[in-house]
Write a structure and sequence with these properties.
Strand order of the largest sheet: 5-4-3-6
Structural class: alpha+beta
Largest sheet: 4 strands, mixed
Order of helices and strands: HEEEEEHE
Number of strands: 6
Helix content: 10-25%
Shape: globular
Number of helices: 2
């Protein structure tokens, strides 16, 4: 494989494993199905999604490693700012 073909090779879509705390279903979600909010503290940094099985809105805390994985995988990110 040449360097040029490596640069133009199609990239497989990124999927993330997730679970719903309500119905306990386990599934894979595309980056577009997840949302990441980065706040000023650990309490205000989280990711969220809608469970494809039961429709529940799910919100889970996101530590540094999760933030790194989600942003690297193309998840839409909202940066929350405090006023003051």
């Amino acid at each position: 494989m040449s360097a040029m073909s490596a640069l133009t090779a199609p990239v497989a879509p990124v999927t993330f494993k997730a679970a719903c705390p309500d119905c306990r279903a386990r599934f894979e979600l595309s980056a577009g199905a997840l949302r990441l909010a980065i706040g000023a503290s650990r309490r205000t940094t989280f990711y969220s999604f809608t469970c494809p099985e039961c429709g529940s809105a799910v919100r889970k805390p996101a530590g540094e490693r999760i933030v790194e994985l989600l942003t690297g995988g193309g998840v839409n990110t909202l940066r929350l700012h405090t006023t003051g």
